[in-house]
Amino acid sequence: MQLISTIHIGKNGLTENVFETIKDRFKNHQNVRIIFLKAAGRDREKIKQGAEEIVSKLGRNYTYRIIGFTIFLKKWRKSQR
Questions:
Q1: What DSSP state is assigned to residue 2?
Q2: What is the pLDDT of residues 7-28, one digit of tens each?
Q3: Strand extents, DSSP E, 1-81
């Protein structure tokens, strides 16, 4: 099992396809790194809202950390909330 997988978010932003891709990546990886490209906009508040939306759609076993324009997602075995 690989540790981390990377997904790039471009001008289309967070679409349903992106959420499906994230769920697929967690089948084979422990962590997923989501990088927001310049075309997606470099607004930190928008990135934080995106992270909250991702975690709310994935479920309670996921947490995130934002560093710069990158969101690091981690899946836990037990609920963190």
A1: E
A2: 999 999 999 999 999 999 999 9
A3: 2-9, 29-36, 62-67, 70-75
Residue 53 is assigned to a structural domain of this protein: yes
8 Å CB contact between 25 and 73? no
Which residue range(s) make up the domain with 30? 2-75
- Residue 57's H or E segment, with its range, is helix 44-58
Paired sense of beta strands 2-9 and 29-36, if any: parallel
Classify burial at 66, counting beta carbons within 10 Å of its beta carbon; exposed 0-12, middle 13-18, buried 19 or more: middle
> Is residue 62 a part of any domain in this protein?
yes
**CATH number of the domain that residue 50 is part of:** 3.30.110.60
Could you tell me the pTM of the whole model? 0.88
Tokens 């990377």 identify what position? 6
